[in-house]
Amino acid sequence: MLDHLKETDYGTPKRESEREVTLEIDGNEVTVPAGTSLMRAAVDAGIQVPKLCATDSLEPFGSCRLCLVEIEGRRGFPASCTTPAEAGMKVRTQTPKLQELRKGVMELYISDHPLDCLTCSANGNCELQDMAGVTGLRNVRYGFDGANHIKSEKDESNPYFSYDPSKCIVCNRCVRACEETQGTFALTISGRGFESRVSPGQDEAFMDSECVSCGACVEACPTATLQEKSVIWLGQPEHSVITTCAYCGVGCAFKAEMKGNEVVRMVPWKDGKANAGHSCVKGRFAWGYATHQDRMPKPMIRKNISDPWQEVSWDTAINYAASEFKRLQAKYGKDSIGGITSSRCTNEETYLVQKLVRAAFGNNNVDTCARVCHSPTGYGLKQTLGESAGTQTFASVDKADVIMVIGANPTDGHPVFASRMKKRLRQGAKLIVVDPRRIDIVKSPHIKAAHHLQLRPGTNVAVVTALAHVIVTEGLMADDFVAERCDSASFKEWKSYVERPEQSPEATEQVTGVPAAEMRAAARLFAKAGNGAIYYGLGVTEHSQGSTTVMGIANLAMVTGNVGREGVGVNPLRGQNNVQGSCDMGSFPHELPGYRHVSDSTTRATFESAWGVQINPEPGLRIPNMFDAAIGGSFKGLYCEGEDIVQSDPNTQHVAAAMMGMECVVVQDIFLNETAKYAHVFLPGSSFLEKDGTFTNAERRISRVRKVMPPKAGLADWEVTVKLAQALGYPMDYKSPEAIMDEIAALTPTFHGVSYKRLDELGSIQWPCNENAPDGTPTMHIDRFVRGKGKFIVTQYVATDEKVTRRFPLLLTTGRILSQYNVGAQTRRTENNQWHSEDRLEIHPHDAEERGVKEGDWVGIQSRAGETVLRATVSERVQPGVVYTTFHFPESGANVITTDNSDWATNCPEYKVTAVQVMPVMQPSSWQQEYSRFNRTQHELLAAASAPQGGEMVPAK
Ligand code: SF4
Ligand code: SF4
Ligand code: SF4
Ligand code: FES
User: Fold this and answer.
1) pTM summary value
2) What is the pLDDT of residues 440-455, one digit of tens each?
C-alpha cells in the first residue's frame, strides 16, 4: 500500500457546485467548483500558498495573514483561504511585497516561540518550521527579551497528548476542530490580544474539561503545542500503512504511522469514507493493548481446567485439539462439537471458521457473537426489506432533515458517526431520541432533541406502533411510495392493525410511559419533515421482541417513504467492528455466506462442489442451544475464536456451568480472557495490527485491514484455522487472506466483484458489489426493494416476562461508555481506564433516597438470575424505577444478573430489561467472591505454566 505519511493539505474544504469558475493563478489557468477558495484553487494549479491557520478539514478562519495574495484590479492583499475564486480573476501568490508581508508575520510568531526546533518533538513535521523556511525568515528583529509565553506551563493531564502553551500560535485550528469536527466545544481562546491562549473549559486541565480525547485538535495543530505523547517518546514516524480500526462498527480508516514494527501513532485517514479523517479516543489512542505484557505468545494445553497450563509448540497444540475433537465426535456423535466466531475477527477468519465447522466438523454448529447483539437486525430487515443490512452510508446523514435515534447512544458507542450526525443537527436537522435514559445527545452543546421519548425499558414495540398509528390515522403516509413500492396485501393488514384505537399513544401511554402528546408530536415531525432517517442500536435488538421492533422500524421507514435515497433509511449501528461481516460470512447455524439458508439445495450444492464435502441441510445449534446441550451432556467440544462468551453472554452462572460441562474447549484469543479460564487448549491470536484481511462496517463497507507488525505468536489467526482443519483431515490450502477473499467472492453473489485489488483501487467497497454494481452499493433499495415489494409486518406488542415485582421492583438496563469497549479486554489494558475504571450502577435520586443509597456507596443488585455488587452513581439521567450499568469489567458481573430471556425469533438475549432489587451492602456478592477465587486460581495455573522440556508431553486422555 502506498505510504501516506505526507498528504496534500488543500487548505480549505472541498466545495460542491454545479457551476465552475476558471481563473488564472501565477499565470496558470485553473477551473474549480464555485465557492472554492483561492488557496485550494492554487493547490489544484500545483501552487502551495503559505498558510498556518488554514487546513482542509476546517472552515477557513483568516487569522494568520500568511496566505495573502494579490488580485489584479483589486486593492490590498486578501487572504487566499477566505477569498472565493471568481471567474476571470488573475491572482499572484508570490511577489516581493507578499514576501515582505509574510516575513513580517513570521517574525511576530517566532519572537514568541521557543527556538528549540532541534529537540522539539515536531521537528520535521511542524508547519511553523516549514513556513519559516518557505517565507525565507532569517532573523527576528524583535528579539526574544520582551513579554512572551515561553515559560508557560505544560498540561500533561491527558494520558495520550500534551499541551504546551509556549508553542501555541493561537491559530484557532484546535478550537475549530473541537467544534466543527468533533462537536464537543471543549476549547476556547481565553484572554485577548497578546494574552490570548487556548483553554480547555474554564481554564481547566484537559482531563478536567469536557474534552473526550478524540484527538481532532491534536491532528489539527500545526505546531508541537498539542502533540501525541507517543510521538514525544518515540520520535517522528518513518512510514505509514492504511488500516481499519478494530473497535466499533463505524469502521474508521487509520494511518498506522510506524517506525519499523513499532506504532508511533494512529492518525485518522482523511480519505477514509466512514470517518473522513476523524476518530475517537479508542481508535486514535487505545491501541497499546496490542503490545501489552498480558499478551499470550505461546500455545498451551491442559487436560482439566484445574491443571496447570503446559506450553507446547503450535503443532502439538493443534494436533491435540484435533485429536480431542475427533475423540469427542467418535464417542458422543458428530453434533457434539461446534465453533463460535467473533465480530472482532476479519471476514476471512470468520469465513474459515464456519467452513471448518461445516466441512471438517461436518455439522452446522457455528454461531457468532452477533447472536447476542444484532441477530434481530438480520432477521427483521430480511423479512421486511429483503436484505439483512442497513440501507445507507454514514455520509447520508448529511442530507437528513429529521433523525430518529432509537435505543442507541452514538456519542458513546459510535462516536465518529455521532460527530457527523451532530454536525447535521447543528445545521438545522431535527432530532427525536427514543431511549429510557437521558443520553448525551438529548442535550449537548448547540444540540437539543426536539423530542425525547423516555420510554420504559421493554416497550419499544408499543412505541413504534404508536408512532405508526399517528402517521396512519392522521393521513401522514407517503401514499405514492407505499402504492408503488410496497406489498399491498401486507400493507392493508398492517394498516388495519396499527389504526386500531388500542395502538394509539393515548391507549399505550400507561405502558410506554411516553406522554401521548409528545408521541404524537414526534410522529408528525418524523413524517412531515422531509428526509427522515432512523438510526438504532442494541437498545432495539437486545429484547424479547428485538426482531419485532426492527420490523416496526422498517414499517415506519416504508410508510413515510423514507427508503431508497440519501438522507433517509434504516440504519443499524453495529456494535463491534465486524458484526456486519461476521453475519455476511455465514457464521450463523442456519445460513451459508450471503444469508442463504442451509436448507436451500442450490446454495448447498455450490458450496459442496467448491469444498468437496456434503453439507448438512439442517441448521445447527445456536450459542444458547450449545450451552443448554453442554449442560445436558450432549455438547462436548468448542472451538471459540476471538469471543469471550463467559463475560459477554447473559446469565454468567449458566454459561460457566456449560463450560464446565465440556471436555475440550479450544480458545483462540490474544489474552487469557474469561472464557480461556475454562479452556483446555489455548491458541494465541493476533491483534488487528498483526493481520491482513477485511472488516465490514455498519454501512456494509468492506475495508482492508493491513498488517503493520508480525503476529506475536508466529501464526496469523487464519493460518491457525487452516492448520486445525488440516489436522482434522480436511484439506485447506490458502496462500494468503487474499485467496480466502477470492473464494468468498466466487461463492457469494453479493461479493462477486470484491477483491483486494478493487479494494486498493477504491479504498473501500459497500456490498452488494457484483456485475450489477461493480463499484459497490452506497444506498440500497433505490428503485425496488431487494425482496421486490417492501413487506409490512404486524408488530404486536407482547410484554416481556421480565416484569417488576415487589421482590424486584426496578428495571435494569445496560449500555456502553465511550472510553471502554465491550468486555473491555482491549481498552482495560490501556490508559482509557483513567476515564472509566469500574462499572457503576446509575440510580435515580428518588430510588436512591428510598434505599438510603448515596453517591459512591456499594450496592447489591439482585435479579432472579444472580447478584452482584457495584458502586452507585446517583443520577437523573435515568428515570425513577430504572437503573443502568455498563459491562466492561469482568469482576462487575453485570451478566450474572441478566437472564436467559431472549428474542423470540433469534434468541438474542434480553440484556436491556432485567427486574432487580438494589440495596446498600458491605461486601462483594457471593458470585464475586467465587469469581475472585476462581480467577486467582487460574492466574496461578497460568503462572505455573511449564515450558516444554526435552520433548513435549501431551496430557493423557
Ligand atoms: S481531544 Fe477532541 S474533544 Fe478534546 S479538546 Fe481536542 S478536539 Fe476537543
Ligand atoms: S494549540 Fe495548536 S492548533 Fe491550537 S491555537 Fe495553538 S497552535 Fe493553533
Ligand atoms: S472506535 Fe469506532 S468511532 Fe472510534 S475510531 Fe474506532 S471505528 Fe472509529
Ligand atoms: S491561512 Fe489564510 S489567514 Fe491563515
Assistant:
1) 0.94
2) 999 999 999 999 999 9
